[in-house]
């Protein structure tokens, strides 16, 4: 990342803020409670974690509210809490359009995917693909999910480690193993019950801290009107950038269309969500959980957008990266929390706990679900275990997955901002997965060959695009200049000089035209493009290979398609039965069986 640097008149500030004793106490108490929940459900609760139904589904006796809170906590990761405000600070608030995506995703989940998965009642949602297509398609989808988790979890761990390093001075190489060990412990021994109740506790603390910090920050900045006026003057209020150029970093279309496809995939057709929906006793309860989750998801996302305006209003005339207060843009928001809440003992600690809560929630969910997916789709078909042994095998997988993700954190450290990195990584696999399920649920005529090779083509295409774009970024060829930043309010700035106090992160006016057009595609479009490629390729290959030969159960289709398919099947049956009777009249044949012969 290059910058147009300020002149030498700017003196880097050294006024660093750190955690106080009360902050450390609150932080340790929250992590301790998470550990105790794992101990309780692992060793003392009546429901022992010694069978797969209890370990993965909580015996289907969970309540709506904790399940909804767990879902919300899972998808409100530390990337949302830290990465989104930093993105708004640099590039404006066009990301607000994610609220539209959130509403569409909720509707899709309630009326398209949930009825199908709830009827099937399988631990892995990929069992649907085996019933609809073939074992090979199911295995491919499970592999894509394993790849998604192994790429995504390290980003989720790395993000709060950045925040903790900023407020304590402890290197992230020290704190990261601690986070992983605590999460591995309560996920391994407590099962899905511990994951859901820990998520609820952590999400509650995160929301309380978020509301308090937003309130205090708004008051210190002179109120909402002043915050929006400063943001408007700084060019951050970008409500509707309708430019259709797909190579932009952000626009209304990139956010509303690109994120919709990614979230539909990550929420609608991934095991961690489907697994939670199956922990409640009936479909009505599952739908209530989805609506609560949808509303909570949108609200927290919009709060993160507002937090971006808060930090811009605070640092609109002195960028904290240039002043030396923080090292990375992703550390600006935790530093802001320390600065505005330093007079309230324990509040910064509670808020950083919120960052960790979001990361722990996402990590524990993915580890628990991924272990179940690997067991169901790769181990169970080849080995026969007792329920107790199977439960122990899954627990061992959780530990192994956690260790692998911990090692991959040190690779993530070398890459770009957590916001763009998280969406890019997710987009590589989420579009392909969504395409497979779309092919299965929306058309009874797509066959297994079309679904399999459509997914392969989509995955190969998106890996090529994402890897090529990342290499161009690392080489400095592909850049997205930030909106203007200032440093005239920093200590040591020569206000009587003639130097321009405006600068840009990455050189303003950089020309990306030398980069191949396919690598310039906005990262928010990765998932949408992957879905389109999978659907188009799968449809063409299916029809080229004869389509689906045998009728399928209408339970495998979304409710929107079922009634149409039933009517089509009834017409087909009618046409099959009627010609022999008509031929019987015309030819005078009394035995219809002779007509068939």
Automatic annotation (TrEMBL):
What is the membrane topology listed in the Swiss-Prot or TrEMBL record?
Multi-pass membrane protein
Alphabetized InterPro entries for the sequence = Na/Glc_symporter_sf, Na/solute_symporter, Sodium:Solute_Symporter_SSF
Biological processes per GO annotation: sodium ion transport
Q: Which UniProt keywords apply?
A: Cell membrane, Ion transport, Membrane, Sodium, Sodium transport, Transmembrane, Transmembrane helix, Transport
Q: What is its main location?
A: membrane
Q: Which GO terms describe its cellular component?
A: plasma membrane
Q: Which stretches are transmembrane?
A: 24-43, 64-82, 94-118, 139-162, 174-195, 207-231, 251-269, 290-312, 350-371, 392-412, 418-439, 451-471, 523-545
What domain of life is recorded for the organism?
Eukaryota
Location(s), subcellular: Cell membrane
* Any Pfam family hit: SSF
Which Gene3D superfamilies did the record assign? Answer: Sodium/glucose cotransporter
Is Transmembrane helix there in the keyword field? Answer: yes
Q: Please give one Gene Ontology molecular function term for this protein.
A: symporter activity
Against NCBIfam families, the record matches this protein to: sss
Question: Which family is it part of?
Answer: Belongs to the sodium:solute symporter (SSF) (TC 2.A.21) family.
Q: What is this protein called?
A: Sodium-coupled monocarboxylate transporter 1
* Organism expressing this protein natively: Culex pipiens (House mosquito)
């Amino acid at each position: 990342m290059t910058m147009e640097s300020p002149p030498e008149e700017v003196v880097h500030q050294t006024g660093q803020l750190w955690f106080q004793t009360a902050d450390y106490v609150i932080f340790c108490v929250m992590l301790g409670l998470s550990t105790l929940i794992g101990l309780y459900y692992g060793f003392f609760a009546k429901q022992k974690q010694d069978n797969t139904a209890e370990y993965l589904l909580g015996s289907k006796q969970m309540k709506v509210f904790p399940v909804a809170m767990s879902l919300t906590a899972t998808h409100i990761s530390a990337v949302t809490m830290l990465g989104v405000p930093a993105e708004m600070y640099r590039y404006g608030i066009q990301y607000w359009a994610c609220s539209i995506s959130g509403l569409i995703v909720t509707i899709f989940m309630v009326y398209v995917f949930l009825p199908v998965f709830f009827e099937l009642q399988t631990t892995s949602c990929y069992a649907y693909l085996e019933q609809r297509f073939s074992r090979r398609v199911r295995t491919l989808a499970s592999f894509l999910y394993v790849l998604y988790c192994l790429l995504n979890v390290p980003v989720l761990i790395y993000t709060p480690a950045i925040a903790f390093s900023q407020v304590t001075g402890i290197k992230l190489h020290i704190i990261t193993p601690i986070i992983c060990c605590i999460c591995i412990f309560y996920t391994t021994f407590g099962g899905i019950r511990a994951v859901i109740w820990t998520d609820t506790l952590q999400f509650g603390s995160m929301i309380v801290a978020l509301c308090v910090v937003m309130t205090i920050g708004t008051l210190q900045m002179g109120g909402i009107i002043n915050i929006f006026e400063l943001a408007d003057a700084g060019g951050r209020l970008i409500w509707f950038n309708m430019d259709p150029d797909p190579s932009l970093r952000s626009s209304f279309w990139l956010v509303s269309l690109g994120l919709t496809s990614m979230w539909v995939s990550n929420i609608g057709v991934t095991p961690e969500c489907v697994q939670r929906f199956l922990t409640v006793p009936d479909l009505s309860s599952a739908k209530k959980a989805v609506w609560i989750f949808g509303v909570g998801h949108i609200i927290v996302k919009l709060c993160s957008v507002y937090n971006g305006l808060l930090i811009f209003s605070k640092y609109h005339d002195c960028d904290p990266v240039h002043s030396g207060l923080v090292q990375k843009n992703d550390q600006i928001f935790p530093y802001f929390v320390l600065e505005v809440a330093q007079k309230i003992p324990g509040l910064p600690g509670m808020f950083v706990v919120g960052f960790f809560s979001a990361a722990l929630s996402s990590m524990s969910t993915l580890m628990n679900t991924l272990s179940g997916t690997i067991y169901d789709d790769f181990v169970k078909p080849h080995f026969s275990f007792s329920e107790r042994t199977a439960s122990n095998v899954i627990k061992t997988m959780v530990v192994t997955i956690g260790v692998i993700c911990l090692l991959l954190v040190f690779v993530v450290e070398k890459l770009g901002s957590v916001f763009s990195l998280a969406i890019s990584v997710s987009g590589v696999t989420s579009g392909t997965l969504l395409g497979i399920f779309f092919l299965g649920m929306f058309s009874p005529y797509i066959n297994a060959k079309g679904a399999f090779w459509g997914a392969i083509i989509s995955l190969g295409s998106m890996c090529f695009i994402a890897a090529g774009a990342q290499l161009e970024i690392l080489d400095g060829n592909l850049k997205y200049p930030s909106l203007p930043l200032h440093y005239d309010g920093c200590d040591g700035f020569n206000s009587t000089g003639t130097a321009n106090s405006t600068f840009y992160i990455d050189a303003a006016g950089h020309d990306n035209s030398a980069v191949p057009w396919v690598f310039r595609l906005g990262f928010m479009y990765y998932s949408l493009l992957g879905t389109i490629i999978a659907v188009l390729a799968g449809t063409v290959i299916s029809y080229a290979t004869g389509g689906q030969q045998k009728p399928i159960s209408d339970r495998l289709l979304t409710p929107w398609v079922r009634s149409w398919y039933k009517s089509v099947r009834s017409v087909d049956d009618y046409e099959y039965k009627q010609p022999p009777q008509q031929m019987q009249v015309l030819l005078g044949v009394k035995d219809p069986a002779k007509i068939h012969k």
